[in-house]
Write the structure tokens for this entry.
Amino acid sequence: MTLFEELKRRGLIAQMTHEKEIEELLNNEKVSFYIGFDATADSLHVGHFLQLVVMKRMQMAGHKPIALLGTATTMIGDPTGKTDMRKMLTVDEINHNAECFKRQMERFVDFSDGKAEILRNGDWFLDMNYIKFLRDIGSKFSVNQMLTAECFKSRLEGKGLSFLEFNYMLMQSYDFLHLYKNHGVKLELGGNDQWSNMLGGVDLIRRVEEKPAYAMTFTLLTTKEGKKMGKTEKGALWLDKEKCSVNDFFQYWRNVSDDDVINCLKLLTFIPIEEIEEMEKTMTGADLNKAKEILAFEVTKMVHGEEEAKKSLDVAKNLFGGKGIDENMPTTELSFNDLTDGTIGILALLVKTKLAPSMSEARRLVTQNGIAIDDVKITDPKAQISIGDGIIIKKGRKVYHRAVVK
């Protein structure tokens, strides 16, 4: 099976500019390709993870990935999928975020011996002459055509689009041209929401260099209902364990919808596609739960390492197998200052353990029968909880957390 066939079979490919030519490139050449990452936070999230999986898969087939950190484009802000203008970050914040991205990427992609590169578009944009850019690049774009792009159209119909953001498509397009001329990049990859921006780059290279370049988008990580995956009650599903604990990360995948588990296995893991297709034939009962365990273990292993994945798997098996406390269970250590006469209010406890982001959300969980302490349902939001030698808090059906006093 060729790389192109496997990408299609796994459902990774969404759109392509030139299907026949891209298939030829991927199967018969060693091509340099790039994916852009705007440094908008100090950690990558699960949406980026899908892109890193694609980069790794392409690298394993002999192609050369270039991870482009948007130290310039982050200063502008991509309007795609946003109802408001993105928060303006300082240069120091952007550079810090880019360094965090770089450290995380190195866990997935092999950057040794020129097998891959990490570049920053600030290196060519920040000192660029704006008048020259407008004459050389801006003149190649039609405003009428740009306004038909979905990323601009939705904003214009809503709260409006700033001139600052209007430049984003030109900058991303120029990135492709720069990489084409200076690094031999023929192919841009990205999420399907980037299609309009990527077409701009392909067209710019055609106009300036009078040579072909190619773009291919891959499937966004969504549920069967079309909603983006990776959102939790605590926010985004981050790859940094300080922002999302390993157990929370594991449990997210262990608890995916029955309808989504096979798709996630195809998109996010390196389990042979033949094995996944065999699993798909028996997706009921115990087999379904086993598939979810495999998904959670494989994804957690890639992000946090095999040892951490095994710990999280043991926690899940002990809890759901009725064995009770596990030494690796997520635990919050309370101080005596958190207690009044040896007890703590249930709402304060849920906030303290980060099982609820606020007192109002904690109240909702309690009043809607979503919380149990040591298997006893707590329905009174005024309940005082005695911690004793430690308690186990159960949130919903599958989230367990231990609280102790130190």
In short: Residues 164 and 342 are 56 Å apart (CA to CA).
